[in-house]
Design goal:
about 170 residues
């Protein structure tokens, strides 16, 4: 069995994180970005997330980072300060059973430790059953669908909203 190691991200992971996200931007609908951000932009975002005390974790398989997950500000208004939005991205050929679950479980535990109340999943594409089922398995409940709010790859794409409350 392949060993999955979940750990806090490091500065040295930025290149791999960039590559994972770039693939999703160019080939997937989990994000509505159409142009990949630079490594500098990803590092800046990671720094801002860590500065807030939020988790930004990676999953390693056989010593190689194959996935990452973090939470970020849901909305800027202070009334939302106990609610965050989660993100998770996995290299396509590393979408092995249990990897996303283990990574998200670790993120959820970190969110509980720092006293957050809600995690909101904003899932690109209502056909993204892998992400929807992962979140459902972890206790998220579907709270809505925003129909045809993104246009990517020549088609309109829904956003599925899911929520986990502690």
């Amino acid at each position: 069995m392949t060993e999955i190691i979940i750990r806090p991200s490091k500065h040295g992971d930025i290149s791999t994180i960039h590559d994972i996200y770039e693939y999703e931007v160019l080939c997937g609908s989990a994000t509505f970005d159409e142009n990949p951000p630079s490594k500098k932009d990803i590092l800046k975002k990671r720094t801002a997330i860590l500065k807030r005390g939020y988790p930004y974790l990676v999953a390693e398989v056989d010593g190689k980072v194959v996935a990452y997950s973090y939470v970020s500000v849901y909305r800027e208004r202070s009334a939302y300060n106990k609610t965050v939005e989660n993100s998770i991205y996995v290299i396509p050929d590393s979408r092995i059973s249990g990897l996303g679950t283990k990574l998200m479980e670790a993120v959820i535990e970190e969110c509980k430790k720092i006293g957050l109340k809600n995690i909101i999943a904003v899932i690109g594409d209502s056909d993204n059953m892998a992400s929807i089922n992962l979140h459902k398995k972890l206790g998220f409940r579907k709270v809505g669908i925003l129909r045809e709010v993104g246009f990517k790859f020549g088609r309109w794409i829904d956003v599925v909203l899911m929520q986990l409350s502690f």
